[in-house]
Write a structure and sequence with these properties.
Elements lengths: L4 E4 L5 H10 L1 E4 L1 H4 L1 H7 L3 E7 L6 H5 L6 E5 L8 H6 L4 E2 L6 H17 L1 H9 L18 E5 L3 H11 L4 E5 L10 E2 L3 H5 L4 E4 L13 H7 L4 E4 L8 H9 L5 E4 L10 H4 L4 E3 L8 H19 L11
Parallel strand pairs: 1-2, 1-3, 3-4, 4-5, 6-7, 6-9, 7-8, 9-10, 10-11, 11-12
Helix pairs in contact: 1-13, 6-8
The chain binds ligand A2R.
The site of ligand A2R has 24 residues, from α8.
């Protein structure tokens, strides 16, 4: 039997690519590199393999009459037009849970990094500045107030870790949870006004675009820090840059950016930020587990078995 044809729409982690190539006929980003060749094979494409940053718009789905399944290597699937897929009865899968610990670890790492100015301290030593005197004092984390925007799988894992730091924890979501003792605030602004660290961990997409805006940052205030391990789009980036330039907030630690991998010069030159290149789930262990789950979803589909982790519709 011939192998199913699948379209890969992202630069994939090589071990996942190798696994796919062994089991499928893989067309690697041919829709971008060679549209004519893509048009010729498009009618045969039965699956799409994406990653968390991929765009799978309606226009692409419409070009694939035989498409049966879309799998995402990542928990966030805001680049996929799930409504367009659902209209055609095409399921979408992602890789939840297996990356929860890593993203939570990274959220805490960034919070500690900006509060204690760890990258700045490293630079200080390397630049030979230590003999000239000590660094300025930093912000204590233990016992401080943490606000979590989005208390899902990862938000709760961040809360659990923050409990270990004796932090008082509050959160905001659209629907108040009944299974937590953390204090609930109905909006990001109300939450920001009550905390020292505001940790953003909602999904991306239209519903959360610009959720952290100038008003939220003003409420966070000159002693408050913003941490974003969700999606760059959740934060109004120009408003954040302005707030950082004018000390409206104390600082920010960001793993995600609007328009990444391009990061605005205005952000890169600031001293009151820690910037990382979307590495929250980037460990060998977690990428292996994500690859196994993404591959497992495709395999399940083409073997006529139930999908492992279908996104809700
Ligand atoms: O709003 P709710 O009750 O559906 O709670 C979800 C919350 N959330 C929001 N919170 C405030 N304002 C919003 N507009 C809003 N939209 C959603 O985000 C829920 O508490 C949380 C999402 O949790 P999970 O679906 O369990 O996702 P998980 O695994 O924690 O990952 C979150 C995101 C991914 O979508 C990636 O973009 C990123 O982390 O790596």
């Amino acid at each position: 039997m011939s192998k199913p044809d699948i379209l890969v729409v992202a630069k994939l982690w090589p071990p996942l690519m190798e696994a796919l190539q062994a089991e499928f006929t893989v067309h690697d980003r041919i829709h971008e590199s060679d549209p004519a060749a893509f048009a010729a094979i498009a009618p045969r494409i039965r699956g799409i393999q994406a990653n968390g940053e991929s765009k799978v718009p309606r226009a692409l789905i419409d070009q694939l009459p035989a498409l049966e399944v879309i799998t995402v290597f990542g928990v966030g699937y805001d680049g996929v037009d799930v409504a367009a897929a659902t209209e055609r009865g095409i399921p979408v899968t992602n890789t939840p849970d297996v990356l929860t610990d890593d993203v939570a670890d990274m959220g805490i790492t960034l919070m500690l990094s900006i509060a204690r100015r760890v990258p700045h301290a490293d630079k200080y030593v390397r630049a030979g500045l230590w003999p000239s005197g000590p660094m300025p004092l930093a912000r204590k984390v233990t016992g401080a107030r943490l606000g979590i925007v989005g208390l899902g799988r990862i938000g709760q894992a961040i809360g659990k870790r923050a409990e270990g730091f004796g932090m008082s924890i509050a959160y905001t979501t659209r629907t108040q949870r009944t299974d937590t003792t953390y204090t609930y605030y109905p909006s990001a602004t109300a939450l920001a006004a009550e905390v020292d660290f505001l940790m953003v961990i909602t999904p991306g997409g239209a519903a959360t675009r610009g959720l952290i805006n100038a008003e939220v940052l003003k409420a966070l205030g000159p002693n408050g820090f913003l941490i974003n391990v969700a999606r760059g789009t959740v934060v109004d980036q120009p408003a954040l840059i302005q707030a950082l330039q004018n000390n409206v907030i104390a600082g920010a630690a960001l793993d995600v950016f609007d328009g990444e991998p391009s990061v605005p010069e205005e952000l890169r030159v600031l001293d009151n930020v820690v910037l990382t290149p979307h590495i929250a789930s980037a460990t060998w262990q977690t990428r292996r587990a994500m690859a196994d789950l993404a591959f497992g979803n495709l395999q399940a589909h083409f073997n006529g078995k139930p999908l492992l982790t279908r996104v809700p519709v």
